[in-house]
């Protein structure tokens, strides 16, 4: 019966779904190809459905398989959380901590914090998830998250870091060549870097009369925008604290554009007694507070 299906069958199902073949799933999972084949056959028999069809390009998931994927991935996250919880028992700080953060924070701010922490606790392993969407801590997508919005779920522990301000910046040689805008309307004659999709930052510009369709360069990747600003491609939004670290970046129109993001470090309350999560949580709070106060 479906209620007795073991996790290993769903694990092989996800492997084939992601790799598109039995052999690829076997390599990813570290088991043999015949074992993966038996798992898929057993799962199809237990569920009474067909999960994959053969094609010249490999095994293609059926519509039902695509529906089941989300449920299997929830099981995968739960299994990983169980393994992490088991590995963290005892007073020693060891095991895996999965940390979620935005692209820019994860690449530009967290690495020195995590490096220093691992020098103190070398048996601590870090999984850094870079995403600009909110990871669901209640569904165990991450153990700890750095968020630019106040958490609302009661089951989460949260520490407020402070405000991270975003303002318009450009490289010094760009401003030397094109001039420094003194008013918001001056941006119409500049190369402005922004997002593809509308968000709070774009809305803050639109209120002042600058529309998204006039961006010279646009990307929904914060890292791509930052790289464009650093390359001298134009004027774009950058964290003020981060820009201070680059002697070539200059802030423009500070009174015209100043988006302040309330920043928090959060984790599920069930992890409060986990040594590995506790030290990670405290290190992130301390390190990010130093960053905000720079």
Automatic annotation (TrEMBL):
Q: GO:BP terms for this protein?
A: DNA-templated transcription
One family from Pfam that matches here is HTH_1
- Keyword DNA-binding assigned to the entry: answer is yes
Q: Which InterPro entries match?
A: LysR-type_TF_proteobact-type, LysR_HTH_N, LysR_subst-bd, WH-like_DNA-bd_sf, WH_DNA-bd_sf
The answer to keyword Transcription regulation applying to this record is yes
Span of the signal peptide: none
Give the top-rank taxon of the lineage listed in the UniProt record for this protein.
Bacteria
Listed GO MF terms: DNA-binding transcription factor activity; sequence-specific DNA binding
Protein family (similarity comment): Belongs to the LysR transcriptional regulatory family.
Protein's name according to its UniProt entry: LysR family transcriptional regulator
From the broadest rank down, the organism's phylogenetic lineage runs: Bacteria, Pseudomonadati, Pseudomonadota, Gammaproteobacteria, Pseudomonadales
């Amino acid at each position: 019966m479906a209620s007795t299906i073991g996790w290993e069958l769903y694990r092989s199902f996800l492997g084939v779904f992601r790799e598109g073949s039995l052999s690829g799933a076997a390599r990813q999972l570290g088991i043999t190809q015949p074992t993966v084949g038996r798992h898929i056959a057993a799962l199809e028999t237990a569920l009474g459905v067909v999960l994959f069809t053969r094609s010249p390009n490999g095994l293609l998931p059926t519509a039902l398989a695509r529906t089941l994927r989300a449920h299997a991935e929830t099981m995968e996250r739960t299994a990983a959380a169980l393994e992490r919880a088991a590995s963290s028992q005892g007073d020693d700080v060891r095991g895996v901590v999965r940390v979620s953060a935005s692209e820019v924070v994860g690449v530009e701010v967290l690495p020195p914090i995590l490096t220093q922490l691992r020098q103190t606790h070398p048996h601590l392993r870090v999984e850094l998830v870079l995403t600009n969407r909110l990871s669901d801590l209640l569904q165990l997508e991450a153990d700890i998250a750095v968020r630019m919005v106040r958490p609302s779920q009661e089951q989460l522990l949260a520490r407020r870091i402070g405000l991270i301000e975003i303002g318009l910046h450009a490289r010094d040689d760009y401003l030397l060549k094109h001039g420094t805008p003194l008013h918001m309307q001056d941006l119409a004659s500049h190369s402005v870097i922004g997002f593809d999709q509308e968000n709070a930052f774009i809305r803050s510009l639109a209120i002042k009369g600058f529309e998204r369709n006039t961006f010279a360069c646009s990307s929904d990747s914060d890292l791509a925008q930052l790289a464009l600003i650093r390359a001298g491609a134009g004027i774009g939004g950058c964290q003020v604290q981060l820009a201070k670290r680059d002697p070539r970046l200059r802030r423009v129109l500070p009174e015209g554009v100043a988006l302040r993001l309330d920043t928090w470090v959060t984790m599920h309350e069930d992890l409060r007694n986990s040594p590995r999560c506790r030290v990670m949580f405290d290190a992130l709070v301390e390190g990010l507070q130093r960053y905000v106060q720079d």
